[in-house]
Write a structure and sequence with these properties.
The chain is an alpha/beta fold. The protein has 2 domains: 25-211 and 325-489, Zn peptidases (Aminopeptidase, 3-Layer(aba) Sandwich), CATH 3.40.630.10; 213-322, Alpha-Beta Plaits (2-Layer Sandwich). It has helices at 2-18, 28-56, 64-76, 141-159, 179-184, 237-251, 290-311, 330-343, 350-362, 389-392, 425-447, 449-464, 485-496, 508-512, 525-531; strands at residues 80-83, 92-98, 102-107, 163-169, 193-200, 204-210, 213-222, 226-227, 260-267, 274-275, 278-287, 314-323, 326-328, 378-379, 398-404. Strands 1, 2, 3, 4, 5, 6, 13, 14 and 15 form a 9-stranded mixed beta sheet that branches. The chain has a 4-stranded antiparallel beta sheet with strand order 9-11-7-12. Strands 8-10 form a two-stranded antiparallel sheet. A hairpin with an 8-residue loop joins strand 1 and strand 2 (92-98). The N and C termini lie far apart (82 Å). Bound molecules: zinc ion. Zinc ion binds at residues 136, 138, 173, 198.
Length: 532
């Protein structure tokens, strides 16, 4: 018995040492103002982490350094972090606390191929020629989540606030590739509310049915290799890919207008005098509902089967990923909107405004500077984009927060001009504002159980308006972690020379030797450099 008594006594002593009686929690308004002070104190750090992630320039499923940095940061703040979730090495879940409510924060962190660009440079100015870069600004997302998560943890400890905070990191968003698998692995079960973040040019949120459902598929053909000079001895897999594309292009006239099909030839042969025995076409199908996109995809399948028949090659199919549309929760969006209005836009400095005007002049866009007003709450319209976060919106009450971390005026993303803004003081200020909205919204949910009940009831009604969600990812599919392995390997060593150490004494600008703000150019130099 003795050892048991000793252990129990020790456990009690340890528990008392680790968890001193918490101070009675002040009201939500005071908690929020305390959270804002904590976030402001940590803002420079989060800005530096964002710049470091920008400098890593990692694309989908290759976000190894990014995840190491995020893991280290959240672990040292007291979160337990699990990487490699749902079979993807760079997917993670970080948890703190226990019990109800279970509040989720989520975002992605991948870059874009061939989008390398020096921040603040107003012409096409690659850090490493041909390399990937953050040409959409996803580098800002994790610091926005972490800023909130760290402040919330501190407040939970101090005041013994209830509930569990879970931070979710979904890799390879640009390939729509991770969140569907995370959903199917059950990682979002029991989540009471989920806030996702995405870089934008202003602060706002929306709700309702939006975006397109999407299916990402590889159709691979196997033919017979032969010498190009005696090509009749072979059967070309590349021909099959080309015939699939021709059939799909004819089909475009006979699909209803919101539908979209995009493609690249992922494998197309090595040289003209070798008949390619292997070729792969990679396609995204998009449509307004999961049901519509599945029908469209089945029509596409006929094109691929027909091409295999015509070329006497063998077809194999791999659905890499798929997602339903977005279905954002109105009641949660209303709660988040109140905090958006409470916090407001960042306090831009004259330098920030000069940077924005310089960028806009260089891109030949309206010279409007940085917005100073938040967006009103919107019912979302159905746009052409898609994200794998779509599947998550059907699992728990969900909203997406857009936060201002780049000036308006760049192209919409997936382009070097979109990498001019997201590693600058504008981004750093936007990140802090996003963290504040997240923290304030979760404080509301931790201190007002009635608000959470309203949100959850609203979610049930919202789901009842649509067919029941069912994953479009086949049960035997595995995450496409092969994507981008070669592309990233080509540039890793060259990019390493430009990796920014967030603990260094220098800012990222000092490290890169660029100045802020850039001078306002006399002409549309950025636009001209894009046309060359
Ligand atoms: Zn994005």
């Amino acid at each position: 018995m003795k050892p048991i008594i000793f252990t129990t006594a020790l456990a009690l002593i340890t528990a008392c040492t680790l968890a001193p009686p918490a101070i009675a929690a002040p009201n939500a308004a005071k908690l929020k103002s305390e959270a804002f002070t904590l976030i402001d104190a940590n803002a420079d750090r989060m800005g530096r982490l964002s710049d470091a992630i920008f400098s890593y320039s990692e694309i989908g499923f290759q976000e190894v350094k990014t995840i190491a940095l995020v893991k280290k940061t959240l672990e040292s703040a007291g979160y337990s972090v699990q990487t490699g979730v749902a079979g993807m090495p760079t997917a993670y879940m970080a948890k703190y606390g226990s019990g109800s409510p279970v509040l989720g924060l989520m975002s992605d962190f991948d870059g874009v191929p061939t989008a390398s660009q020096k921040p603040t440079s107003l012409v096409h100015d690659e850090i490493v020629p041909g390399a990937p870069g953050h040409g959409e600004g996803h580098n800002t997302h994790q610091p926005a989540l972490m800023g909130a998560a760290i402040a919330l943890k501190q407040l939970k400890d101090k005041y013994n606030l209830p509930g569990t905070i879970i931070v979710y990191g979904g890799p390879a968003e640009e390939q729509i590739a991770s969140r569907g698998y995370m959903v199917n692995a059950g990682l979002f079960k029991g989540v009471d509310a989920m806030i996702d973040v995405h870089i934008g040019t202003t602060l706002g949120t929306s709700y309702g049915y939006s975006n397109n459902a999407i299916i990402s598929v590889e159709w691979s053909f196997k033919g017979k290799q032969a010498h190009g000079a005696t090509a009749w001895q072979g059967r070309s897999a590349l021909d099959a890919v080309e015939l699939t594309d021709i059939a799909l292009n004819y089909m475009r006239e006979h699909i209803d207008p919101p539908a979209r099909i995009h493609n690249v030839i992922a494998v197309g042969g090595k040289q003209p005098n070798v008949v390619p025995a292997e070729a792969t076409g990679w396609y995204y199908f998009r449509h307004t509902t999961a049901q519509n996109v599945w029908q469209l995809f089945e029509r596409g399948r006929k094109a691929a089967r027909g091409a295999a028949l015509q070329t006497e090659t063998e077809l194999s199919e791999r659905i890499l990923a798929a997602s339903w549309t977005f279905n954002g929760n109105q009641q949660l969006a209303e709660l988040v909107q109140k905090n958006i209005e409470l916090i407001g836009m960042p306090q831009w400095t004259p330098d920030d405004q000069q940077f924005a005007r310089a960028l806009q002049t260089s891109m030949d866009e309206p010279v409007v500077g940085l917005p100073t007003k938040v967006e009103p709450l919107k019912k979302a319209a159905q746009a052409t984009g898609s994200s794998d976060a779509g599947d998550v919106t059907w699992q728990a009450p969900y909203v997406r927060l857009a936060f201002p971390a780049k000036p308006p005026g760049a192209l919409a993303g997936h382009h070097w001009s979109s990498a001019i803004g997201p590693a600058t003081p504008v981004a750093h200020k936007g990140i802090a504002v996003a963290s504040k909205v997240l923290a304030a919204s979760f404080i509301d949910l931790m201190t007002n159980p009635a608000a959470l009940t309203t949100i959850k009831n609203g979610f049930q009604k919202q789901l009842a308006e649509y067919p029941k969600w069912k994953s479009m990812i086949p049960p035997n599919a595995t995450p496409a972690t092969h994507l981008n392995v070669r592309e990233m390997a080509k540039y890793r060593a060259a990019l390493e020379k430009y990796e920014y150490d967030p603990d260094s004494g220098k800012t990222y600008f000092e490290f890169l030797g660029v100045s802020y703000p850039p001078a306002i150019p006399g002409s549309a130099i950025g636009k001209a450099s894009n046309e060359k």
